[in-house]
Amino acid sequence: MSTVTLYTTDTCPYCRNAKALLASKGALTHEINIDREPGKLQEMLERSGRRSVPQIFIGDTHIGGFDDLAKLDRQGGLMSMLA
């Protein structure tokens, strides 16, 4: 199964939703909390081009935020990407 990297913050409800959705699929996740590791903000910006959280990557593929992840799941593509 592919590892999912999530850039998150402590107070973001969309981050919690993304983690819950991924957990329900049995995904292996690696969370990078940019509140606790401020230097990782720049890494997130360089990888995604976005400032909002969460930013989600499956392997090296940028998925986007929670709405993008939920849409991928609704369209049936999430499980195949996680495989």
Automatic annotation (TrEMBL):
<keyword id="KW-0249">Electron transport</keyword>
<dbReference type="GO" id="GO:0045454">
    <property type="term" value="P:cell redox homeostasis"/>
</dbReference>
<dbReference type="InterPro" id="IPR011767">
    <property type="entry name" value="GLR_AS"/>
</dbReference>
<protein>
    <recommendedName>
        <fullName>Glutaredoxin</fullName>
    </recommendedName>
</protein>
<comment type="similarity">
    <text>Belongs to the glutaredoxin family.</text>
</comment>
<dbReference type="GO" id="GO:0005737">
    <property type="term" value="C:cytoplasm"/>
</dbReference>
<dbReference type="Pfam" id="PF00462">
    <property type="entry name" value="Glutaredoxin"/>
</dbReference>
<dbReference type="InterPro" id="IPR036249">
    <property type="entry name" value="Thioredoxin-like_sf"/>
</dbReference>
<keyword id="KW-0963">Cytoplasm</keyword>
<dbReference type="InterPro" id="IPR014025">
    <property type="entry name" value="Glutaredoxin_subgr"/>
</dbReference>
<dbReference type="InterPro" id="IPR011900">
    <property type="entry name" value="GRX_bact"/>
</dbReference>
<dbReference type="GO" id="GO:0015038">
    <property type="term" value="F:glutathione disulfide oxidoreductase activity"/>
</dbReference>
<comment type="function">
    <text>Has a glutathione-disulfide oxidoreductase activity in the presence of NADPH and glutathione reductase. Reduces low molecular weight disulfides and proteins.</text>
</comment>
<keyword id="KW-1015">Disulfide bond</keyword>
<keyword id="KW-0813">Transport</keyword>
<feature type="domain" description="Glutaredoxin">
    <location>
        <begin position="4"/>
        <end position="63"/>
    </location>
</feature>
<keyword id="KW-0676">Redox-active center</keyword>
<dbReference type="GO" id="GO:0034599">
    <property type="term" value="P:cellular response to oxidative stress"/>
</dbReference>
<dbReference type="InterPro" id="IPR002109">
    <property type="entry name" value="Glutaredoxin"/>
</dbReference>
